[in-house]
Design goal:
By secondary structure, the chain is α/β, with parallel strands linked by helices. The protein is 42% helix and 14% strand. The protein has 13 helices and 12 strands. The strands form 2 sheets. Strands 2-1-3-4-5-11 form a 6-stranded parallel beta sheet, with helices on both faces. It has a 6-stranded mixed beta sheet with strand order 7-6-8-9-10-12, sandwiched between helices. The longest helix is centred in the middle third of the chain and has 16 residues. It is elongated. The N and C termini lie far apart (81 Å).
Amino acid sequence: MANKSMNLKQLAEHLDLSQATVSRALNGYPEIREATRNKVLAAAAEFGYRANSIARSLATGRSGNIGIVFPDNFGMMFDPHFLEFLAGAAEMLSTRDMSINLSMPDRNHESSKYADIIRSQLADGFVVNGPVRHDSRVALLQSLKIPFIVHGRTESEVPFAWVDIDNASAFQRAAHLLIGFGHRRIALINAPKHFHFAFQRELGLKQALEAAGLPFEEGLMFNEPQTEDGGYRLTNLILQKNPRPTAILCGSMILALGCLRALRDAGLEVPGDISVIAHDDVFPYIRAEAMRPALTTTRSSLREHGRRVAEVLNDIIDGKLPASYHEIVPLELVLRDSVGPVTPG
């Protein structure tokens, strides 16, 4: 039989199984035995079978999509952090023959957009991106009774599914490293503080300073959307402080690019005059180890986060994981050449 002519009925006949069993095996239903699922998947691969998405939707009652709704903000569509996450989610979903439904309503209709998508059966679950400290989307999606997962966390009394890194711990470790090199005045270039991750990163720095008996200075905390220009502008503000901080923590590699440009323009050496650490989102086109000097980072891959978030959401949709599942993705601190001891003077 030619691969192109293979359909569900023929695949089922070849395996001597019912079409319903083959369909459920292909779509990951938990009641199908592992041996049967493996047998079906192997035959589908051998004969080049791909499920017709419309037929699959009719058979399973599912759209085969996950939804991502974000406010009317064109900057997000071109934000490299979001695009890296999206790429990882799309890569994972493609292995299950699924897609992403992206929606961008205006700010006054974001809540109703979720209901519209659910009513139209355009998504089987949702990913919530960029959670703020008190994010109303969690309660909304719980009331709509649809599976969802938050990439990050928010402060909620009701359990919900999330995948995140320990932002406070990451920046606490980075600050401890700087303190160990003798730094006492550490500035932070961070995303807007209403984002939960940004609040936690500042908290981590504060905890490290307090543990070392050092003062926490609000005047050294700077917040700006994570752009290269933002990093440049905030670094110039930092350099106006007297006395000048001896180290800067950057909330992302994009901010760090602007920071390093501002330091070069000011004629300052890294780390001779000032040390720099960035949160490294492992962008394929910005390699911390290839920069001059090689940049010390807390390493965490947004693309891997996208893959994992999509995988967990699918398992929640399939009933393999609870709706309250949560996971902290490991993170490492990588010491390179951009950190050194404080220069006397």
